[in-house]
Task: inverse folding
């Protein structure tokens, strides 16, 4: 694991974007196409704002997926991750394709199979992820399933995760937050060839310490990143404030 600590969240986003751009350029030069996975949430604002300004990436050759989406939430909802990524990313770039999770599909399990079959047509070259306040990775809340081999799963969201969504302003109340989501599995995230993990903000400090310095455990799902051979973690001074090493 490669760790970078910068003074501010804006600098974190810019540095993570530079790493992501360099990675995409290298991948495209080597194989002519790239497959990219994107996260959402407040932690990704600065990263995406910098990434979409990269004019020296041949976006026509980049195919994208995203990590997760709420079950039953229409794309028109302010908290929809499809809406988030279309507004901040896909509508601003000439991508080869962006395969969105249809969270409001009539059958969520069939949607897991559909999006999973698209994702597994070729390896994922680069995944941009964050870490939740409860240590979750994508929407794999603790205790996460480290053994599931499906690309996407239907997962239950714990109260800490749902409260984070209210705290970030995506929902007006805890009751409004869906209780389930479709999430990329831990196994599939770990199968991505390179991971760029962006985690600013003081409210993430405990989860960062758990993920980077604690034991690898389903009780802190993002701790599995310690075992990835090419994971780059970007923190600001606040989110790194509880690290001991």
Result:
């Amino acid at each position: 694991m490669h760790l970078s600590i910068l003074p501010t969240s804006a600098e974190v986003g810019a540095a993570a974007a530079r790493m992501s751009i360099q990675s995409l350029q290298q991948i495209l030069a080597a194989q002519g196409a790239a497959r990219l996975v994107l996260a959402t949430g407040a932690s990704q604002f600065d990263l995406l704002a910098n990434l979409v300004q990269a004019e020296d990436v041949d976006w026509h050759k980049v195919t994208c997926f995203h990590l997760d989406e709420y079950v039953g939430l229409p794309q028109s909802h302010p908290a929809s991750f499809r809406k988030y990524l279309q507004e901040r990313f896909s509508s601003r770039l000439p991508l080869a394709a962006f395969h969105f999770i249809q969270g409001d599909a009539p059958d969520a399990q069939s949607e897991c199979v559909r999006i999973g079959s698209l994702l597994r047509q070729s390896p994922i070259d680069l995944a941009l992820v964050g870490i939740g306040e409860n240590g979750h990775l994508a929407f794999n809340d603790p205790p996460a399933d480290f053994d599931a081999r499906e690309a996407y799963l239907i997962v239950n969201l714990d109260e800490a995760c749902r409260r984070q969504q209210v705290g970030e302003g995506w929902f007006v109340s805890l009751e409004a937050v869906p209780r389930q989501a479709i999430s990329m599995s831990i196994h599939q995230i770990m199968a991505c060839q390179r991971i760029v993990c962006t985690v600013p903000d003081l409210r993430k400090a405990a989860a960062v310490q758990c993920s980077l310095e604690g034991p690898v455990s389903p009780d802190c799902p993002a701790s599995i990143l310690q075992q990835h051979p090419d994971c780059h973690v970007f923190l600001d001074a606040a989110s790194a404030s509880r690290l001991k090493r």
In short: Helices lie at 9-31, 45-51, 81-88, 108-119, 159-167, 186-191, 205-213. The chain is about 30% helix and 20% strand. The beta strands are 2-6, 34-38, 62-66, 68-70, 97-99, 126-129, 152-156, 180-184, 194-199, 231-236.
